Amino acid sequence: MSSRALLLIVVILFLAPSAGYAKECPADPYKASQTIWPLGVLTMGQEKTAMHPCGRKITCIGGRFDPDVKRSCH
């Protein structure tokens, strides 16, 4: 086996576990944020960034309980 093929195998094995975590991430960042910050934790206009348990970084700006002004996340 060539060193290039061996390197390719090592890279694939290194990256493969991280691909599995992304599948568990909620598609909606707003819903994913509720795992990190339950409703009522972020105040209006407060911006926070954290890592979701699935490994994705989420940034949210707090809103109100009024459904028209809910927190925005990406």
What's the N-to-C terminus distance?
44 Å
Overall pLDDT metric = 81
Structural class: alpha+beta
Largest sheet: 3 strands, antiparallel
| Spatial sequence of strands, sheet with the most strands | 1-2-3
What is the helix fraction of residues, given as a range? 40-55%
What topology does this entry show?
Elements: H1 3-24, H2 29-36, E1 47-51, E2 57-61, E3 72-73
Q: Can you put this structure into words, describing what you see?
A:
The structure is a single chain. With 74 residues, the chain is an alpha+beta fold. It contains 2 helices and 3 strands, in the order H-H-E-E-E. It is 41% helix and 16% strand. It has a 3-stranded antiparallel β-sheet with strand order 1-2-3, covered by helices on one side. The protein starts with a helix and ends with a strand.
Summarize the structure.
With 74 residues, the protein is α+β, with helices and mostly antiparallel strands. It contains 2 helices and 3 strands, in the order H-H-E-E-E. The chain has helices at 3-24, 29-36, and strands at residues 47-51, 57-61, 72-73.
Name the descriptors.
single chain, 74 residues, alpha+beta, three-stranded antiparallel sheet, 2 helices, 3 strands, 41% helix, 16% strand, rod-shaped
